[in-house]
Write a structure and sequence with these properties.
132 residues; Immunoglobulin-like; four-stranded mixed beta sheet; alpha/beta; 2 domains
């Protein structure tokens, strides 16, 4: 009986882990806008940024707005570092000039994290010729 219970717990944990891996790309918000705003909400763990996970196109202008009463940074080592963003409406802007997935956090509180995925948009079809 004890072995059966242990096996069921292990299978449940494995199912949860696999669901998380499959869901991450699907759970990311997708924006086709050329300008995106991410709000810094403060120390709320995975909910510290809104949206916490987003996919944007290469060339998108991304602005983080600090809505918390404390200063924070937006830091993705090797990709970008805002320095300290002033509280109560301070802003920092970054142009998504390189493709990739960037997990960022605040140096004030590393538990505050978000993910920004920058993708190359698919080619657009040529415009239709007039009169055809």
């Amino acid at each position: 009986m004890r072995l059966l219970f242990r096996r069921a717990r292990m299978l449940a944990a494995l199912a949860l882990a696999l669901t998380s891996l499959v869901c991450l790309p699907a759970c990311q918000e997708r924006s086709n806008s050329s300008v995106v705003t991410i709000n810094i909400l403060g120390d709320r763990g995975a909910n510290s940024f809104k949206p916490a996970n987003i996919i944007v196109n290469l060339g998108t202008i991304v602005t983080w707005v600090n809505e918390d009463s404390q200063p924070h940074s937006v830091t993705a080592p090797g990709a970008f570092d805002s320095g300290m963003i002033a509280p109560n409406g301070g802003k920092w802007t970054w142009v998504a000039a390189m493709a990739g997935t960037f997990t960022y956090s605040s140096i004030v509180n590393p538990q505050m994290s978000g993910t920004l995925t920058v993708v190359v948009p698919p080619p657009q079809p040529p415009p239709a010729s007039p009169g055809r």
